[in-house]
Amino acid sequence: MIKNSNSADHVSPIHSSVEGRDNMSHMARNVRWALAIVALLYLPVVLTDRAIFGIPLSNAQLLNLSLTQINLMLIAMMGALSLNFLTGCAGLISIGHAALYAVGAMTAATAGTLWGWPFTLVLLAAGVTGASAGFLAGLPSLRVRGLYFVLSTMALHYIVMYAFLEYQFKFFDVVGIPFKNASLGSFELSTPLRWYGFLLLLTVLVFWGLRNTLRSREGQALTAMRDHELAATSLGVNVRTLRLKAFMLSSAIASVAGALYAYYLTNVTSESFGIGFAIEFIAMIIVGGMGSLGGSLVGAALWLLLPSIINLIASQANETTGLVHLVLVDHKAQLVQLIFGLLVVVLLIFAPDGLAGLSKQWQKRKRNTDSSASAHKGEA
Amino acid sequence: MLGQVLFGGLAVGSIYGLVALGFAVIFKGTEVFNFAQGMFVVCGAYLAVTAMSVLGLPFFAGAVFIVCAAALLGVLIHALLIQPLSGRPMLSVIMITIALCIVLRALIEMIFGSAGRPLSTPLPSGVITLGSLRISKLHLTAMLVSWVCMGGFGAFFRFTPIGLLMRATADGHEAAVVSGINVNLMNRLAWAIGSVLAAVGGLFLGQLQIVSTELESIGLLALPAVVIGGMQSIPGAIVGGLLVGLVEQLAASYVSPKSSDIFIYGLLLLILMFRPWGLFGQRELGRV
Fold first, then answer.
1. Burial class, B31, CB count within 10 angstroms (exposed 0-12 / middle 13-18 / buried 19+)
2. What is the ipTM of this complex?
3. Cβ(A284)–Cβ(A179) below 8 Å
4. Which domains does chain B have, with CATH numbers?
5. Which of A139, A148, A341 has its CB closest to that of B99?
6. Is residue A2 domain-resident?
7. pLDDT tens string B208-265
8. Structural domains counted in chain A
9. Fewer beta carbons below 10 Å: N end or C end of chain A?
10. Is A159–B262 a contact, with Cβ atoms under 8 angstroms apart?
């Protein structure tokens, strides 16, 4: 009764209740979107005034967060979105995303720092070089499948890192590559607040663009390819070029994110983009949920908030001594990694669709209990 | 000069071959693409540090300790992480080995600190001069031990009943189950062997360099080695390892010390493009 709720004798009451719920959920979704937008616009005010609606908040309550961390989070979100598009939706694992960030940073250094191009043009150039790097590294994927793709992205990583090191020492020095202040026309991105507005806009654009891509014909073909490559081929999907296109799009976004990252940090070295950096992105999308674009946002947010949370606990535990102190204070960075790594492992075993999958399950259960309740009402 | 470089390449390549063999045993046996093989090498190096410097065991007891602990690590990882994921898509299984890298690295840095540690063992060090060739005794030992290990495991797979059971399991899981083979036990054994081989590699790499979690990227060279040799082929893994070692040493001496990566991974890309089944592997056929 609960499962096939549109069985013949119950059509009218349940159908109407379903429709009503659809309207409700539609409205609820709009309200949720509006709330999210308001919250995002209000966030910088909270963080600069250190107060919410006039109620002052202590640093601990705000997790010592500043707008800078939020901005870095937004940049990481773009990377996570592009990787999740590739891994979760197209089924291709890439450990080359750190390298693509590096490609973006190198492009930004050449076009922005050396040639003095305007910022917007630099970002465009980063997108183009990122797509080209993706094209080159994706070429083997015309021949090989799934597993081997990981290896070609690994090759991309080491080759790009070598190039980056050579590049850094040829044109700059050990200290790293410096970047100028970014500005959009005459609007200078000189404060964290201005950056926040710009990055928020870009992140929303990337999210929206990827979501629409997934809903397009080619996006559907991409998902089909992930689920069953041979079946997709037999339906006339050209998996080879599709794979290459998906990787190029993902690379272009990651590269732009890399250029933004470099500009935001104002100085990067080859050590900023190790293989651990690429692995962090993979961890983010597993935690958030593979194949869920919203999940990548959550994963990236969690990854960047976790250090702040640990910091908070550590500051409380400052008085305690012994092992707790040792672990919390002296090995904070490792503790963050450990907790996140374990979270990934536990989620992979017990909830392979990540937090997004968990929330979907929870909603489904809630809906089931709701509909069973309304079905009972109908019978009464 | 060339002889010197070639010898160094063969010595380092033997270690890579050993690590790659461990990877291939796991891949053939359980179809898991073990991204954590590089981290297993690091674990081996730190187990050696524990045995030699922390516990102060005599060398042979230390060696037994390293082998037992590494085998235990492999078995535990299979039981806790890999077995629960059996039947899941390949993507999740690769992901869990990647997550394992994060966890192991964090644990090691928490226990031993993130600074590198020197590893000193009673293994012979010093140089033998053979004509114009100067051979490091450590290189020679590493090479000999690697070859003994590779030969030993080759014979184990070829001639012992358990080796036969393992090969049968690798050839077809279902057929093995039907024949009454304890497939889980065989898989666990494969993970133990893979981990031990990586640990032995770690023991030598840790001594040739310095023991730190940075050894991971050296351990990860086993991946290109395996692919160049052919994923499904055990001799391919060894030859691939030797080839990677030779390319690395040649590039480091004749081009520039840091350029070896670009040659190794460039070779990997070429292989992926023109001969994805590797030098010794068999062409994979897609079935509908």
1. middle
2. 0.87
3. no
4. 2-114+131-274 (1.10.3470)
5. A341
6. no
7. 888 888 888 888 999 999 989 888 788 888 999 999 999 999 999 888 888 888 999 9
8. 2
9. C
10. yes
